[in-house]
Specification:
The structure is a homodimer.
Chain A lengths: L1 H9 L4 E8 L5 E8 L4 E7 L2 E8 L2 E3 L9 E15 L9 E14 L4 E10 L2 E8 L7 E7 L2 E4 L4 E4 L12 E4 L24 E3 L2 E4 L5 E7 L7 E5 L5 E6 L8 E4 L2 E2 L2 E7 L2 H6 L2 H4 L15 E6 L1 H4 L13 H6 L11 H14 L3 E4 L29 H11 L2 E7 L4 H18 L3 E5 L14 H16 L3 E4 L15 E4 L7 H4 L7 H4 L36 H10 L4 E3 L4 H6 L1 H9 L4 E10 L3 E8 L5 E7 L4 E6 L9 E8 L12 E8 L4 E6 L4 E8 L2
Parallel strand pairs in A: 22-23, 22-28, 23-24, 24-25, 25-26, 26-27
Antiparallel strand pairs in A: 1-2, 2-3, 3-4, 4-11, 5-10, 6-7, 7-8, 8-9, 9-20, 9-21, 10-19, 11-18, 12-13, 12-15, 14-17, 15-16, 16-21, 17-18, 29-30, 30-31, 31-36, 32-35, 33-34, 33-36
Chain lengths: 698, 698
């Protein structure tokens, strides 16, 4: 009962002002208050149950009086929005934006400085932000700390990763809040650069499950010109406080009024599926700033990439740099992957199997000494290695109707990349590359900056903005995690920014539950380039004795194309591995990456998720179901299918004795005819999955 | 006698190794030693007199063992160089490089790390640097501190400015070493951004005069990929220690072997003129990296600039930003200077009077809110204000045969400038601008960097390097001070990087001695865009009651064109002021800016300097003589003139009762015929000067 006692103590507040606003469904309610000291605070309840109890708001500013007290409310305004809009690419063709807004205008009496706090309450959660209007008494200012709290009601179960300012590529921990402790983590996890902000600092999106069955998620939307918000937990009373990522000087954000902060979000539902299918993060972002989006296209691609991860080739021309060598320190001489002949092989494969694109990493000079040395000038973004005939390759790709995907690894030297960016993008235009995969492995230059600081957030938003001028799409790796900004810059088509499949090749890997958590965390902010589709699951196939493996069954690798939304999806494995399994590969060839509709059928973070999606511009549906380390059975009603239509369902499922560890490659493919009235029995092996394609036959 | 006692104590060193090397003249001698602890050290003597007594060498490295002890000498090598080379632009047409080199190869026994220390001994001084060869035990490393000492023999007179990591725009202080104290300075001096490194931290070039009559100068050459060296003085024993400018993390330099540091220099002579005419700084820099230098041309220019300093127009379009408003805070509405009509007026004037170029500041958007707010995105370097028709202007300038000089003020946001640089330079090419004046007023972004840190040094060197790709010349203002790098990048045609004439318009200004010190300090590193030529000397002409003034006579303003070398020289005053004094203006029209030969005839730092120069490709000579606040008479032998030739000498001198403060505008012009056997009597008013042109008449 200790938490409840704390709650009572907490509530002994003298309140000078209070006003509430509800969601359109009236299930969710937010109350804004000002206490006797003029401190603003808010609370959130869902169906009458407290979700966020009184939590303070405000800021500490550098060399200026604090901005979290002595406020009075001057005006309030409520607005209702009920609108729809169409994303350029997405999980659904049309998105509804239905919310009630409460705008509270405050003035700090001692300083005559103004601030608005704006709440938008959707059915699936609340977003709020601070707005600093243009005013006489606040122009330029520096935020040192943001005082925003998210005070929880109890010792919830949390799906959390440490608050690392340079990386989100962690395995999720699943513990009660009071067991969170970064000091107890095993950090021998394959992440080269770690900058954890504090013992109890954790990342958002933070997925929680309360004992009353509520699913709660703390996140943010529209992070623009502002650092990423991490969260400082008090393990005793379960309060969370914003921890903005600072720069080397300890400053968080350099701002000028007028300015609006990102939205702080609290999603809540008694149904876990509501969290996964929420659209409030997108709704809290600005509409597209690109008028003509005709050149923004979904892509399914193969590429010269996994072969460097499994150690069959190298990024560098001289043949020493691949993920296996880097981990082991051994110098095994293997060929340079990005050569003209190999690239043409991938182009041929892409054409033959209907892939849109081919990514080639290691094409440009600089890879010999690229990693881990905080070196400013590493890569040249326009000079190919001598064995990569960029002109011949781009000509050949064009002839074959295949798009080339450029690769720009910066090794963290943003200074060097920004210097070269225009030339690099011009080079892409010259050779007809429509998209670039960027990479930020390593400590950032300008030195002292973190991946999640304001400077880097600005960089990650700058690249797609500048790329849009050249009509180019961007897929960032090792960037700060997305917060829905791809609504505004829809050419920012994907990001990594979480622990992807690659870790399975050379580290402790991603446990079977990993991909069941991503839809509740990383994917809330935007599409992830997870690079699924690994058929040769055990690394011992490449290196006798190796224990690393992809911690799923083969069938689950197929299901990920549906459960992990991205309009940019890689078939990540080596071409020869697909050629060994043409039947299973057929699903990857068939599956769509851009969608008319999406139905989250089942979901429980850390356990399982089942999603069905209808391809854009087609009557085909695809279903993906995955489970964690436990086997799972489920019966799915196919009522999402169009009534009256008959569909041929091809079911790619785990083999009878399949098991992610002992027998991952075992799969079977069944075909059956179904209608919207059918029910489909899913049988998932431990760490397994099922993928289904539904094609109408009449 | 206290200093001598200290000296004796200092000498109680157990020396394990010693080797000396002399200048070609044998007057200067450097001794390198290793003490019993394996610490390297050196000393310098001149004509048998100690100049630098035993001074330690070495480094503190980050997270690595110290690199200043436990050394043994493995090999030494001596070399003699006697060579000549031709600068693209310069004070002389041919430069002699005659020195003896001692290379000492060291190994640190405890770590097996190697370092060479290389001494080059010229007749006018010694340069030494550290070289880190490629080696197994030292690859990437971070320098925290450089241990280099310059231990002086006594309480010399010093010409010093505080060790400010962001500015050199100070008035020189002239005191004994033991009176140096930054805490005692009046810092109400018009410098907006001050970042003084410590109470006893001072800048190099540091000019000294010893009681034995020796002139000594401590400086550095070829600062590339390394921070600027300031000096920490011990006021008790007169030791100086290198103080490298750090970044926000406290790190000085991020390096990878092989790497050579800048040269640390000690110039010494019993003749002050030797310091002024030294060429060792250039000789210590690498030859030009630009093959075709045909596009690098000297320029004399006028421009829309001084009018903003005196408050007659503004940089910004909306008419609020000029140097007078900025100082006073008053909002006096005056027109925007950089408009098409005004620019054409300057072009017409340039054509009429034979100037090469016209600079226009305030032509591009961003000036409304540009200054002092540490704002990242300020200027757009390609978008002119609506009243500046860049196309019409560049067409008109081309028709008139006048070159336009671009202006890029960054307000310190290097991040933004580097992002835009390629586009900015392409814009210059598009409109036919051959040169750019860059500006760095304000705190640097990336935040935490100083103007003098490694990052900014790299930036200041990057801009001319990149500009060379576009065949463009660069003149940087508020950059780190030059160290002869313009030999290597001869399109880096000038820099400000000291207190220029502009300070006289709106601050305590530059005292009459200022320009007599610059040739012993700032100008040792390279040409300065001082912007002389102010005829309307008192600011009360613009603003009744104003006390600011240029602290010279008018004739001295003319002499500066000769005494302050630069191949880029501005006639800085308003056009109407020149039109009022066509006779005096004739000297500015006539004077050359690129030279065949230079003779320093008289020089005493802080007191006076007289220089004669022969124009390149011409038989004309020009002479400039200036004095400090004291009147001065001198008789100059004209033996630099070609024997047998008769010259018409036009002598622009101070009027009878001229005085920099009471009567600065009084001047007179005499003409006389002279030969190489003539002597010329110079009479300089307090704060005055004389300028002479010599044109052969037969």
């Amino acid at each position: 009962m200790r938490p409840r006692l704390l709650l009572l103590l907490f509530f002994v507040l003298s309140i000078a002002y209070a006003q509430s606003v509800q969601s359109p469904s009236k299930e969710l309610s937010v109350t804004f208050k000002v206490d006797a000291a003029g401190k603003p605070l808010y609370s959130v309840s869902y169906k009458g149950q407290a979700v966020i109890i009184d939590s303070y708001l405000g800021f500490t500013l550098k060399n200026l009086p604090p901005f979290d007290e002595n406020f009075i409310v001057t005006t309030t305004k409520t607005t209702t929005v009920n609108d729809t809009w169409k994303p350029v690419l997405g999980e659904v063709s049309e998105i509804k934006d239905n919310h009630n807004e409460l705008r509270v205008s405050l003035v700090q009496q001692s300083t005559k400085r103004n601030m608005d706090i704006v709440f938008r309450v959707f059915n699936e959660g609340v977003g709020f932000r601070y707005e600093f209007p243009k005013q006489d008494n606040l122009n330029y200012f520096i935020i040192e700390k943001e005082a925003t709290q998210f005070n929880l009601t109890g010792n919830h179960k949390a799906f959390w990763i440490p608050g690392d300012f340079d990386s989100q590529e962690y395995v999720y921990n699943e513990t009660r809040l009071n067991a969170i402790d970064n000091n107890k983590l095993n950090l021998n996890n394959g992440i080269a650069l770690k900058s954890v902000g504090g013992r109890y600092t954790i990342q958002s999106p933070l997925m929680l499950k309360a004992d009353n069955g509520l699913y709660i998620n703390i996140f943010e939307a529209a992070v623009i010109n502002y650092p990423i918000m991490h969260l400082d937990l008090n393990v005793n009373n379960f309060t969370l406080k914003a921890h903005l990522v600072p720069n080397a000087l300890g400053d968080a954000a350099y701002l000028q009024a007028p300015f609006n902060t990102p939205w702080r979000t609290v999603m809540v539902s008694s149904d876990a599926r509501t969290i996964v299918s929420q659209k409030m993060i997108l709704n809290l972002n600005e509409p597209s700033k690109i008028d003509d989006t005709s050149w923004i296209k979904p892509m399914k691609y193969v590429g010269i990439w996994w072969e460097m991860h499994v150690g069959k080739s190298t990024w560098d021309y001289s043949g020493s740099q691949n993920a296996q060598n880097q981990q082991s320190g051994e110098a095994i001489k293997v060929p340079h992957g990005a050569n003209t002949k190999n690239t043409k092989r991938y182009i041929d494969f892409a054409k033959k199997h209907g892939f849109d694109g081919v990514l080639v990493e290691g094409w440009n000079t600089g890879w010999e000494d690229w990693n881990g040395n905080w070196k400013e000038e590493v890569f040249d973004f326009v000079t190919p290695y001598p064995d990569f005939d960029i002109k011949a390759i781009s000509d050949y790709a064009r002839q074959q109707g295949v798009k080339m995907i450029m690769h720009h690894e910066t090794s963290g030297s943003v200074a060097s990349y920004e210097r070269q960016l225009d030339r690099a993008l011009e080079n892409m235009v010259q050779y007809g590359y429509p998209a670039v995969k960027t990479g930020y492995v390593g400590k950032i230059i300008p030195r002292g900056e973190y991946h999640d600081g304001q400077t880097m957030v600005n960089h990650f938003n700058y690249v797609p903005r500048r790329a849009a001028d050249y009509r180019l799409m961007v897929n960032s790796h090792e960037s700060s995690r997305p917060t829905g900004v791809h609504r505004t810059w829809p050419n920012y088509i994907a990001a990594e920014a979480a622990r992807g499949n690659e870790f399975n090749a050379w580290s402790t890997g991603n446990p079977p539950s990993h991909e069941t958590i991503l839809p509740f965390t990383r994917l809330l902010g935007g599409p992830m380039d997870y690079t699924p589709g690994i058929f040769e699951i055990k690394m011992s196939a490449y290196k006798p004795g190796a224990t690393e493996q992809v911690q799923t069954t083969l069938a689950k690798q197929l299901a990920l194309y549906v459960t992990l939304y991205s309009p940019l999806q890689m078939a990540a494995d080596l071409l020869e591995n697909y050629e060994k399994h043409p039947d299973a590969f057929q699903f990857i060839k068939d599956v769509a990456v851009n969608w008319q509709d999406t139905k989250v059928l089942e979901a429980e973070p850390g356990d399982y998720i089942t999603i069905a999606r209808k391809a854009k511009g087609s009557e085909n549906w695809f279903l993906g179901a995955i489970t964690d380390e436990n086997a799972r059975e489920s019966k799915i009603a196919l009522d999402f299918l169009t009534p009256g239509k008959r569909y041929k369902a091809v079911i790619y499922h785990d083999g009878k004795n399949a098991h992610w560890k002992n027998n991952p490659a075992s799969y079977a493919i069944d075909t059956q005819m179904v209608t919207s009235k059918s029910r489909l029995k899913l049988q998932l092996a431990p760490g397994g999955g099922t993928a289904v394609s539904f094609v109408p036959v009449n």
